[in-house]
Specification:
alpha/beta; CBS domain Like; binds adenosine-5'-diphosphate; binds magnesium ion
């Protein structure tokens, strides 16, 4: 096992963007009467259905190892029942693990005193819930300042900070209304304002946009991404929706039956799905829109075409590739420096979903 405290303290030459905020090590959660006694079976490889059938225990999480980077959006994705909520609730110890460790900012969450844990929940983390979790008898303003009230902030400062965040999420003028007078999207804006007002550096969002209509949901994603450009919070965002994961996530971890089956940046997952399950999961993705030049380019070489940005999608690049005489263009970074070369063939190849890495047996 890697020493998490070492990772978290970071080496002198690690760049700021490599900083790890949350580190999860060898985490297991088994639900039932004698979870510890079940660990032996699980470590020996007993599957989730077998554990349920033979011993009546639910395998919630198994062997989770995940480093969550600071100031990025880490998506946890998986179907219903895959363990997403169980995982996120471990971070503030709303759930106690059966085995394993959780480190936040270099501190072992499981070793925290009651006081420390209370501070962690009040000051370092805030949560946005799927069902909004607003108090019906409180006004929008009173809801937005709730986290500050719990922190013990005095009323005038609470009001000022809550008003500022309500304004930031587009709810200026709604302060004195009640949640029932608001649409679903507006209610979740209150949920977001409430979470941001506490100034916590970690935001936990459990299916926060899943209850919203598609258009409103896309709006909320845009608001979150805009705010994040400025705020640089560590956001742990749970979703069962792949499009949402690809749009929002700097990193994505995919859970199945309580285990992480792949973790990486969205491009990694699209270009190198770890197994047949993920291959199947990503097969309907619009690859023209989501696969970027940096994932399909080759080494720098002579080419006369129009330069294309590293972050350009295939869809954005195709006109230039067609227009270039050799069907080949240089790929450049923001400053215009050459980073590689992309060909029309590579772009068209990447439009087809790849075979997965781990399924040779199945497809040979
Ligand atoms: N309190 C509990 N008691 C028993 N089983 C539970 C409990 N909470 C979750 N589980 C089980 O753990 C698994 C993961 O659940 P959950 O984390 O809620 O999944 P998700 O959020 O991905 O839908 C499921 O099989 C669920 O039935
Ligand atoms: Mg859930």
């Amino acid at each position: 096992m890697t020493d998490a405290s070492q990772i978290l303290s970071g080496s002198a030459d690690a760049s700021a963007s490599d900083e790890i905020k949350v580190s999860i090590r060898d985490l297991y959660k088994i639900f039932g009467d004698t979870p510890e006694a079940m660990m032996e079976h699980v470590r020996e490889g007993m599957s989730k259905p077998e554990l349920m059938d033979n011993f009546g225990h639910a395998l919630g999480l198994q062997n989770i190892n995940l480093d969550i980077p600071a100031r990025k959006i880490q998506v946890i994705m998986g179907l219903s029942g895959s363990g997403k909520s169980t995982l996120i609730r471990h971070l503030n110890r709303l759930i106690e693990p059966t085995a394993g460790e959780i480190w936040i900012d270099g501190e072992n969450v499981l070793g925290m005193s009651k006081q420390k844990l209370r501070d962690l929940r009040r000051f370092k983390m805030s949560m946005v819930f799927q069902k909004f979790g607003l108090f019906p008898h409180r006004t929008v303003l009173e809801n937005a300042e709730y986290g500050l009230e719990v922190q013990g902030v005095a009323k005038p400062e609470r009001d000022e900070r809550a008003r500022k965040w309500l304004d930031r999420v587009g709810l200026n003028g709604f302060e004195d209304q009640y949640p029932s007078q608001l649409s679903g999207g507006q209610q979740q804006r209150v949920g977001l304002a409430r979470a941001l007002a506490t100034d916590a550096d970690i935001l936990l969002m459990d299916e926060a946009f899943s209850a919203l209509d598609p258009l409103i949901r896309t709006d909320m994603q845009s608001i979150l991404l805009e705010l994040q450009e400025e705020l640089h919070k560590t956001i742990i965002f749970i979703t069962h929706d792949l499009d949402e994961a690809l749009r929002i996530g700097d990193r994505i971890a995919i859970l199945r039956d309580g285990a992480i089956i792949q973790s990486g940046d969205p491009q990694d997952i699209l270009m190198r799905p770890a197994d047949a399950y993920i291959t199947d999961f990503i097969k309907d993705v619009n690859r023209a829109k989501v696969v970027r030049m940096r994932s399909i380019m080759g080494p720098v070489s002579e080419s006369k075409g129009d330069p294309i940005q590293l972050s350009a999608s295939i869809e954005e690049a195709l006109p230039k590739l067609h227009a270039s005489e050799s069907n080949c263009c240089p790929v450049v970074d923001d400053s215009g420096a050459p980073k590689g070369n992309v060909t029309l063939d590579a772009a068209i190849d990447a439009l087809k979903a790849p075979d997965s890495a781990g399924d040779d047996v199945r497809y040979s």
